[in-house]
Amino acid sequence: MENHHHTLTSENEKRTLAVIIFTLIAMAAEILYGYYTNSMALLADGYHMGTHALALSLTYIAYVLSRKLAHNPKFEHGTDKIGTLAAYTSSLFLGLTGIWIIIEAFIRFLNPLNIMFNEAILVAIIGLIVNAACIFIMEGNHKHIEHSDEKCDAHNKDYNFLAAYYHILADALTSILAIIALLVGKYFGINALDSIVGFLGGILILKWAFGLLKNTIKILIDMKE
Is residue 135 within 8 Å of 17, Cβ to Cβ? Predict the structure, then answer.
């Protein structure tokens, strides 16, 4: 059982690194074009993707540290909580990012800017494609995702991988909302929807951050379900 867990963790580490690379490329493109096209929805999607890149990076670092320190006698109870601590830390950054996006969306709603819809839609679609590729990469370890979601053994869950997986799913949803807002703005002239979607994206990040924060705290303080 222990060797099986080690193999799954090693696979998760490799998959996480691949997803980080895809995510950083898409993040840079969306943020740059978001400012260039004055699209709040695209900016929200880009920064949201940035929070995922941060969370994924913490996930990867936690995997590396857990592996390197696995036989260190100073860790009497193992290194499993390193991953949980990484997830807890990323949830704090996510919360701050969500608040920033909500404030920025509100400012843009009161002071709307002209949006270059064609360019913004193109990059948003590219971002969604990257999200889909990341989901495909992570679902290659679908058995471990199912194992991580079992309620009977909460303290043996790979919160690192499970959190990263749901993080990417949330990012894909935000990308879809951004595309819808841009299409509606382009063809129906409802530009305010762009800011509204940015606001909803911020709410989504806050909701995810709160859920992750609550779950990781329970593990860190050994709180029973």
Answer: no
0.70 cut: is pTM over it?
no
Number of H helices, E strands in the chain: 7, 0
Token pair, residue 141, equals 């370890």
For 76-89, the DSSP string reads TT-SHHHHHHHHHH
Contact present, 206 and 95 (Cβ < 8 Å): yes
Q: Distance between CA atoms of 92 and 7, rounded to whole angstroms? A: 30
Average pLDDT over residues 58-76: 78
**Which of 81, 70, 64 lies closest to 3 in space, CA to CA?**
70
Find how far residue 77's CA is from the centre of its chain: 29
Handedness of CA 28, 120, 42, 108 (dihedral sign): positive
Lowest mean pLDDT among 40-49, 55-64, 103-112, 207-216: 40-49
CB under 8 Å to 188, separation ≥6 — which residues? none
Residues 47 and 105 sit within 8 Å (Cβ to Cβ): no
User: For the ranges 13-17, 120-124, 159-163, which has the lowest average pLDDT?
Assistant: 159-163
